[in-house]
Amino acid sequence: MASLSLPVASSRHRSRPASSARLLNAMFEQLPPDAKTPFVVTRTPGISQWGTVGTGPIESLHADHGLLYVVSGGGFYSVTSAAAATFRGAVGSSTEIDMASDTSNVVIVSPPLAWYWDGTSTFAQITDSDFTSRGAGNVRYQGLRFLFREPDTGRFFGSDLSSVTAYDALNFATAESSSDELVGLEIDHEEVFLPGARTCE
Questions:
Q1: Which helix (H) or strand (E) holds 43?
Q2: pLDDT per residue over 96-138, tens digit each?
Q3: What gap in Å lies between CA 165 and CA 129, rounded to an integer?
Q4: Within 13 A of 200's CA, how many CA atoms are on the CB side?
Q5: 40 phi and psi, to 5 degrees?
Q6: What is the phi/psi pair of residue 70, to 5°?
Q7: Residues 123 and 139 sit within 8 Å (Cβ to Cβ)
Q8: Under DSSP, is residue 1 helix (H, G, I), strand (E, B) or coil?
Q9: 185/96 Cα distance (integer angstroms)
Q10: 148: how many CB neighbours lie within 10 A of its CB?
């Protein structure tokens, strides 16, 4: 009887004969040296469609408040665990959409504009005159403030304490050790991480 050679990798090649061995919903695990066989192939759950949100493409995802927040085809949706999606408002399509949330609000940035959803009935654009004429890039939440990266500059800024709609012209700062343009903004261990085009602070 001929032995059956099981695949131990899964990849596609332009040539079908070169990619005839494929693992589908399974994975290869190396066993200890003293095992009866050198490896075992175990099952993994298959992928199935959980739900459909908007018209697509999916441009951003954010989970908080027991919901999934999705920007799909330029529309902002809240999605329940049962995959029931509710359209909340239009934010426009972008490859750079970012979201952050506090205890009740979700802020959506589609550079250079930003909107907020209060979790109940209000979906609106942030229009405070001090929000900055350049608008916003990334958004994160820390220390009772929403923090934003100002696009095409080395500056970042924050909302007033415990507010999503109020901004002050003094709530701006610059990455000081290097003055290169900021390309992102992240929070880790309650510290603001500012990646620039050449340096990080």
A1: strand 39-43
A2: 999 999 999 999 999 999 999 999 999 999 999 998 778 999 9
A3: 10
A4: 8
A5: -135, 145
A6: -130, 135
A7: no
A8: coil
A9: 13
A10: 30
Nearest to 114 by CA among 104, 130, 103: 130
186-188 and 85-90 strand pairing: unpaired
AA letter at 158: G
What would the 3-class secondary structure string for 101-122 be?
ECCCCEEEEECCEEEEECCCCC
For the question of whether the overall pTM of this predicted structure is more than 0.70, the answer is yes
Q: Residue 73 above 90 pLDDT?
A: yes
The pair of structure tokens assigned to 31 is 């066993």
Q: Within 10 A of 28 (CB to CB), how many other CB atoms are there?
A: 14
- Choose the weakest-confidence range: 18-32, 122-136, 182-196: 18-32
Q: How far apart are the first and last CA of the chain?
A: 65
pLDDT (tens digit, 9 = 90+) per residue, 132-185? 778 999 999 999 999 999 999 999 999 999 999 999 999 999 878 777 899 999
What are the structure tokens assigned to 80, written together? 């329940």
The phi, psi pair for 74, rounded to 5°, reads: 85, 0
Question: Are 78 and 117 in contact, with CB atoms under 8 Å apart?
Answer: yes
